[in-house]
Specification:
10% of the residues lie in helices and 52% in strands. The strands form two sheets. The chain has an eight-stranded antiparallel β-barrel. The chain has a two-stranded antiparallel sheet with strand order 1-2. The protein folds into two domains: 1-29, no CATH class; 31-197, Beta Barrel (Lipocalin), CATH 2.40.128.110. It is mainly beta. It has two helices and 13 strands. Strand 10 and strand 11 form a beta hairpin. The longest helix has 12 residues, at 14-25.
């Protein structure tokens, strides 16, 4: 590995400089357009209090969706998550989460978010997505706080854009109230989305 000496006399690997240049190339802001979620590079994470001792974290492994971002026209977001893909790295717990006590995945196999409004900043980038989350047979308003990560062409010539989105819900609002005295009612949700421009 080649070494590069800086003007301050410090030595750093040339590979680090290459990495920084690569990151800069992907730091551009995504243009308006239609995008399809890349499920292989998208994660949906959640965390909830476990008896006040710790934050239990998990994820959903099956997600799909598409969105249209255009600050000068109508924008929309549609994301669907398979509830039976819940994964907390513990098979017995995951089986319980799929049961009627919690997600009841046989009766409610998907949860879905549909936007009603997208808020943009002065650079034309989304900052908030307001919409409805359907979960466990109930639909409630939800606001996602959005942060663009970066965009650009990948090594295969496709154009990609990435976003982080966060929200907080109460599971009892959706009729999931089993063991509220031990497992927290508040659920923090984080979506790390990578999408392909269509």
């Amino acid at each position: 590995m080649n070494l590069v000496k800086s003007k301050h006399g410090l030595v750093m690997p040339a590979m680090l400089g290459t990495l920084l240049m690569t990151q800069a190339a992907y730091a551009e802001l995504a243009p308006a357009g239609n995008y399809k979620v890349d499920p292989d590079h998208t994660t949906v994470l959640f965390s909830v209090s476990h008896f006040g001792f710790s934050e239990l974290t998990g994820r959903f492994n099956k997600v799909e969706g598409e969105f249209v971002f255009n600050p000068k026209a109508q924008s929309k977001v549609n994301v669907t998550i398979k509830t039976d893909s819940v994964d907390t790295n513990h098979s017995q717990r995951d089986k319980h989460l799929r049961s009627p006590d919690f997600l009841n995945v046989k009766q409610f196999p998907v949860m879905q978010f549909k936007s009603s409004k997208v808020v943009f900043d002065n650079k034309g980038q989304p900052t908030q997505i307001i919409g409805q989350l359907s979960l466990h047979g109930k639909t409630k308003p939800v606001t996602l706080d959005v942060k663009p990560v970066g965009a650009g062409k990948d090594p295969w010539g496709s154009y990609r854009a990435g976003y982080n989105a966060k929200t907080r819900i109460k599971r009892s609002d959706y009729g999931i109230d089993f063991m509220k005295d031990g497992i927290g009612d508040t659920i923090d949700i984080s979506l790390n989305i990578e999408a392909l421009k269509q």
